[in-house]
Amino acid sequence: MNDAVHSDFNDDLLRFIAASPTPFHATAEMARRLTEAGFERLQEADHWQLQTGGRYFVTRNDSSILAFVHAAEPLVEAGIRMVGAHTDSPCLKIKPHADIQSAGYSQVGVEVYGGALLNTWFDRDLSIAGRVTYKDSDSEPCSSLIDFCAPVAVVPSLAIHLDREANRNRSINAQEDIRPLLMLAPNGDQPTLFKQVVSEQLKQQGVNIGAADILDFELCLYDTQTPALVGLKREFIASARLDNLLSCYVGLQALLSADGEQHRLLVCNDHEEVGSASACGAKGPMLDQFLQRLSPDVSERMRMLDRSIMVSADNAHGIHPNFTAKHDAQHGPLLNGGPVIKVNANQRYATNSETSGMFRLLCQEAGIAVQSFVSRTDMECGSTIGPITSAEVGVRTIDVGVPTFAMHSVRELAGSDDALALKKVLELFFKRPLRLGHSV
């Protein structure tokens, strides 16, 4: 790979992740980039008149986004090249009645979102970000994104002297053990009012409201350590939320750089980490409703979908050098070994031989190595938006991703070559005509 292109791509990937501490911020950042690239923003409440040659995007709940390039060839004849990813990551979300006072300290109550590796959240410099809904000057509900940016919280570990079994047998109680510390309680034992803290931060961002005006919020903690290239030869990317902002970025870059005559669609859904069952999740109607508006006739839409294909991009488990026994010996992807095709006999992944063969062909043509992941037969397998989207929409789907260590940790690790490699394959996928469903 060209070193300058490789470096620029990874540097921009790190900037994208740093600008996206929550699904709301990730969606806003993708919307900003699409707007700069000339895409037109659609509102779901409006009547749409999509034009051939047009480039559009639409958001839902401020946390999911769909972008579409409308090519010239009839949809019913060409189908759509789709790429899907998800905007959310496991984290600690702040409870509505957040204030906790204990032993003279102000803390906030949290609940665990998704399958987080809780031990990695201790002793990290944490900030707060998300969405706040408040009463505006017209007494109407209004929402704004918020990001404290600076480290404002920490979950301190218990010293080894007070738990001599910590390195051998320490469990984490999600209710009691991971409450973040904000500050000393003011006036001795009086708890702070968290909404007041939020309103002061909003004022710094130009939203002049008081604590009493705040109606509700969706806020989470995030690690303020910036994404970085690490290793003696900068061979690895270390960052929070690589699962799955890396795939969102790769899909977006492929969409923006691809040319050709194919209809192209990128959808990045929220709530994958908790099952996708929401209005803006992959199990919800967002994609299907867009396709209905794009092709209202049922028969033509079914014909269009028969000529369409979805690549579900979500990180894969790389074989861990310290825990090789946790992997199937024949299916242990290596970091920087290329994108991974994910396979599961019980449909936890949507890959089949047809979609896998298509992806392998694209990798061959792009000059990119490709790997396979299958879980050990005696271990359960995670899942993605792939099987859900395939079932909800009825589109051929393959599950792929880049190999990753420490998935669902507060700081994950991926190879510095793999994101650009996957982008090259998806770019070719977006623009190469493909004959689907051909059997002899």
TrEMBL record:
InterPro entries according to UniProt: Peptidase_M18, Peptidase_M18_dom2
SUPFAM superfamilies, per the entry: Aminopeptidase/glucanase lid domain, Zn-dependent exopeptidases
EC number(s) reported in the record: 3.4.11.-
CDD domains reported for this sequence: M18_DAP
Any Pfam family hit: Peptidase_M18
One GO molecular-function entry: aminopeptidase activity
Keywords noted in UniProt: Aminopeptidase, Hydrolase, Metal-binding, Metalloprotease, Protease, Zinc
Family, as annotated: Belongs to the peptidase M18 family.
Protein name listed in UniProt: M18 family aminopeptidase
